[in-house]
Design goal:
Elements lengths: L5 E2 L4 E2 L4 E2 L4 E2 L4 E4 L4 E3 L5 E3 L5 E4 L4 E2 L4 E3 L5 E4 L4 E2 L4 E2 L4 E2 L4 E2 L4 E2 L4 E2 L4 E2 L4 E2 L4 E2 L4 E2 L4 E2 L9 E3 L4 E2 H12 L1 H13 L1
Parallel strand pairs: 1-4, 2-5, 3-8, 4-9, 5-10, 8-11, 9-12, 10-13, 11-14, 12-15, 13-16, 14-17, 15-18, 16-19, 17-20, 18-21, 19-22, 21-23
Antiparallel strand pairs: 6-7, 23-24
């Protein structure tokens, strides 16, 4: 670990993890714990798959309190330089987050997802595993991403996630559904 990084009391960094310069790791953060790797055995029980990789935090990364970053099954889970993670975030094994990205509290990213640089995620964003998120993507709070987002700079929201402008238009209609239903019922009676 670099001498000029700050690790607050209560943070846990597992052996082999690489921490860059000028990183800040807040209390309760866990860097390098086992990824969630299990395979069903012949007897129906789940067997643990060894997680032998590491976590790499590049320079100027900040990790919020009680955030967990799992080590890779093999290779590295990577948080690129300048990225800031809020409190209570889960980063699964083999995830890669591009440089200068910001993720708000309670975001969860499932295993092997690759996230571009300069992304912004609101609180409680959830991203399924093995996806790709393009550079500059913005996800509104509570967005659920179930497929890759390949167009750079898009803004999405909802669950499942889709274009924010379309979401807002649909939401206006959604709020009026009780009125619309009543009008349809009246028309059907005629």
């Amino acid at each position: 670990m670099a001498d000029n990084s700050i690790v607050y009391a209560g943070a846990k960094i597992y052996k082999g993890c690489k921490i860059g310069t000028k990183c800040v790791i807040h209390s309760g953060a866990v860097i390098g714990s086992d990824g969630f790797g299990f395979a069903p055995g012949a007897d129906g029980q789940f067997e643990k798959i060894p997680q032998v990789g590491i976590v790499v935090l590049e320079d100027h990364v900040e990790i919020g309190a009680n955030t967990t970053i799992d080590r890779a099954t093999m290779g590295s889970t990577i948080i690129r330089q300048g990225t800031k993670l809020d409190n209570l975030i889960q980063i699964a094994h083999n995830v890669e987050i591009g440089e200068n990205s910001v993720l708000a509290a309670q975001t969860g990213i499932a295993g092997s997802t690759k996230i571009g640089k300069n992304v912004m995620f609101g609180g409680q964003v959830g991203i399924a595993g093995h996806l790709t998120i393009a550079n500059g993507v913005k996800l509104a709070a509570q967005t659920g991403v179930s497929k890759s987002i390949v167009k750079e700079g898009t803004v999405q929201m909802g669950s499942p996630a889709f274009d924010a402008m379309l979401y807002n238009k649909a939401y206006v209609v959604f709020r009026k559904l009780p009125e619309l239903r009543a009008k349809i019922d009246q028309l059907e009676k005629k």
